Amino acid sequence: MGFFNKELAIDLGTANTVVYMKNKGIVLREPSIIALNAKNKVVAVGEEAKRMAGRTPFEIKVIRPLRDGVIADFDVAEKMLDYFITKAGGKRGIFRPRVLIGIPSGITQVEKKAVIEASTLAGAKETLVIEEPMAAAIGAGLPITEARGSMIVDIGGGTTEIAVISLKGIVVVKSSRIAGDEINESLITYLRREYSLLIGETTAEQIKIQIGNAYPLGQEEMMEIRGRDLIDGLPKSIQITSEEIRKASQSIIEEILDTIKSALESTPPELSADIMDRGIMLSGGGALYRNIDKFITQRTGILVTIADDPLSSVALGAGKVLEDIKIFRDTII
Question: Of the residues 10, 95, 251, 291, which has the maximum number of CB atoms within 10 A of its CB?
């Protein structure tokens, strides 16, 4: 029976979903996007749906069912999760998987219940949950079982999760719904205000990845951006610099920094000393925003390290919990 019953760890993120299968590792990594037709039938999910964004006829809707780290559209989220569990090989006929899902630490009981119910309807035999910062810390390789403080900052698409962990428990936790999506919005707003240029979320994401930065680069870069002129409605192309992008996203980066400082201010003195010695670990897609580690180090005086695989930290950590449930049982909610 153990052969047929799969165990999955899922990082159900606002921007991306990562699935880890016990004894196999990461088996799926796709955008948390789904395309539905007028009859609410699934047209595409993940990468295929992302390519459709902004390019579909009126009868097809491209939806992101999660916002700010929680389910915004329950029925659509259930369809998307069912697709991911099936594609990952979790369901085989009558055999249903056991699922461990990472959830934001600031989630409400109603929001947590929605995640569990969506997972059950998507085909899970049993659904357990783990707080994302704890899973990210385990996945990033922090020594959470020791009697010393470790700090993790997990910057996702919808939330920024910050935790100080010692002896397999979260001592201090801060959760903010300011993260990668807000950086995209700041770029859209800046281009609309400064250049009367309208761009979509997909273009904003490309700008963020290509020339986005939180701290001055050695040599500033340029990028050509295409969109729609808000004055005459015609297609328009402009050149923008990495310095402009840094200024456009500055307020969002400052808010993330304020949340980190708030967590540090709430940390007991002994654990603060450990963090000064060990530094801060960054994970999540936001950790890849260029020079954000240098920015945080410069403003806090604490060394910041980026996890080896920041995009997969939560899924890898939840996967380690499944692999060694006896050691990490206390981390499951």
Answer: 10
- Supply the pLDDT for residue 312: 95
Give the whole-angstrom CA distance, residue 105 versus residue 174. Answer: 8
Looking at the structure, tell me whether residues 234 and 259 fall in a common domain: no
The answer to whether 157 and 186 are in contact (CB under 8 A) is: no
Portion of the chain with pLDDT greater than 70, in percent: 97
> For residue range 289-316, what is the model confidence (pLDDT) as tens digits?
999 999 999 999 999 999 999 999 999 9
Question: Which of 136, 93, 97, 131 is closest to 111 using CA atoms?
Answer: 131
64: left (phi over 0), alpha (psi -120 to 50) or beta: beta
Distances (CA, A) of 110 to 62, 64, 96: 25, 20, 25
Beta-bridge partner residues of 28: 19
What H or E segment, with its residue span, contains residue 2? none
CA 161 to chain centroid: 10
Give domain status of residue 141, yes or no: no
CA torsion sign for 240, 243, 248, 249 is positive
Would the pLDDT of 63 be above 70? yes
Tell me if the pTM is above 0.90.
yes
Please, what's the largest Cα pairwise distance for the chain?
Answer: 65
Residue 142 domain-assigned?
Answer: no
Task: Give residue 296's domain range.
Answer: 148-178+253-310
**Ordered DSSP codes for 184-240:** HHHHHHHHHHHH-EE--HHHHHHHHHHH-BSS--SS--EEEEEEEETTT--EEEEEE
Question: 302 — phi, psi (to 5°)?
Answer: -110, 135
Q: How many domains does the chain have?
A: 3
> Which amino acid is residue 327, in one-letter code?
I
- The pLDDT tens digits of the residues spanning 192-230 come to 999 999 999 999 999 999 999 999 988 999 999 999 999
Residue type, 332: I
